[in-house]
UniProtKB/TrEMBL annotation:
Protein family (similarity comment): Belongs to the bacterial sugar transferase family.
Assigned keywords, A-Z: Membrane, Transferase, Transmembrane, Transmembrane helix
Domain of life: Bacteria
InterPro entries: Bact_transf, EPS_sugar_tfrase
Species in which this protein is naturally found: Anaerostipes rhamnosivorans
Entry membrane topology: Multi-pass membrane protein
Sequence ranges assigned to domain Bacterial sugar transferase in this UniProt record: 277-465
PANTHER family: COLANIC BIOSYNTHESIS UDP-GLUCOSE LIPID CARRIER TRANSFERASE, SLL5057 PROTEIN
Transmembrane regions listed in the UniProt entry: 12-33, 45-62, 82-99, 105-128, 282-303
One GO CC term on file: membrane
Pfam families linked to this entry: Bac_transf, CoA_binding_3
EC number: 2.7.8.6
Lineage: Bacteria, Bacillati, Bacillota, Clostridia, Lachnospirales
Localization, UniProt: Membrane
Protein name as catalogued: Undecaprenyl-phosphate galactosephosphotransferase
Amino acid sequence: MNIKQSQKQNLIIYFFDVLGIILGYFLMILLRFQGDVRLYVDNMVLYRLIIAIFILTLNYFLFYPNENFFKRTFIKELWHNFKINVIAAAFMATVAYLIDDAKDYSRFIYIMTMVFSFIWMQVVHSLYRYYMLRFKKYSQTSQKMLIVTTSEKADEIIGNIIKEKTWNLWITGVIILDQDWIGRKIHGIPVVANKENMFLYTVRSVVDEIFIYTSESNRIAIKDIVQNFRDMGISVKMNIDLFNMEIATEKYIDKVGQYNTVCFAPKITPLHMVFMKRLIDILGACIGLVITFFITLLLGPLIKIESPGPIFFSQKRVGRNGRIFNIYKFRSMYVDAEERKKELIEKNEMNGLMFKIKKDPRVTRIGRIIRKASIDELPQFWNVLKGDMSLVGTRPPTVDEFEHYEGYHKQRLSMTPGLTGVWQVSGRNDIQDFEEIVAMDVDYINNWSLKKDLGIILKTIRVVLMSSGAR
């Protein structure tokens, strides 16, 4: 799932600013009326707040206030926030005059709300900027980028991108096409691969985007490189003069630092659709965790009585674009199940990189029951709430499965993995070919929609109630 990061940045800062207006408005009302709720609870309070939020939103559409947000100094931020609040105050005064509401406005509330909003913006913007630039390296949501270029251009390009302080972007490594510089560092960024091993490195690493900067004379060779990266589900950005390169995927104009680029990307998803998917995830996870709590009270003692050990099972899985996270389940196997897996490998019934066998001897009696009803998956609602997983997505592979992936297999990881998905509602354990699962997952990603997610959720409920395809 691919969205333009500038949209995401603007939305986050916009929400911070709206929160400041709301907090300032109600705080000033409390101060003005000394906490006597009866004096200020009326319809006009909400009406004026909506006007204030509307005017702030209008400011965003008219003046693009977050342009170069992460490059602004403290003084520039101060001047910027002053202008925004003065413009907002002028708009509000004009609206109040036009609707004949000015005489009923409290000047204290009106002026002090703008003062609070100004101070709030200055403090919150500065803290947010510091946090993102200081800790984006460690953030799971930060876009991890590889730079692919030549030895001649590497120093200039990396230096310029770092100086731009691009939000939510962390350069994790450099690939040099014309030299074997593996082990060197350029502006503190390691050279991680060369032309011969760059695809293998990319498959095994966390990579969200790749920026390729090269000359037009290399167009034919670069076309194959771009296509290989796109087959992994990774967004590829290139210097703008290569826009007309024919690659079978969507493309749009974007920027990396100061460089204008053409981005060869998966299906571009509107930001509001991504927001709605995450909102559904959070609501679903909250409901699911309440159910999980009560199930744990009943199921926990039964798990421990049959097989001493923890109630929950945790295992490292591979998520979006190669990120590692811990997945949680109710323990349905004996505690030595992972060690015994090696003994059972040759009994694997799956064709490919997944492991499944009927009547797995590592599964406990209570484990067979909860697996049949898919109850063992309930703790994954915690993964959904954290953002490691979504309600609907692709199955997250184990680390050892992932280490055997070919390039095109990684495309199924270009989206956040799901608690359920197409595979689970299309036969689950009856499907025995890993390549078939990959094809289903890639088709889901390329044709994703909220309607399709809701359909999969409804099918999942039916599959779980009928226990179809489960073992």
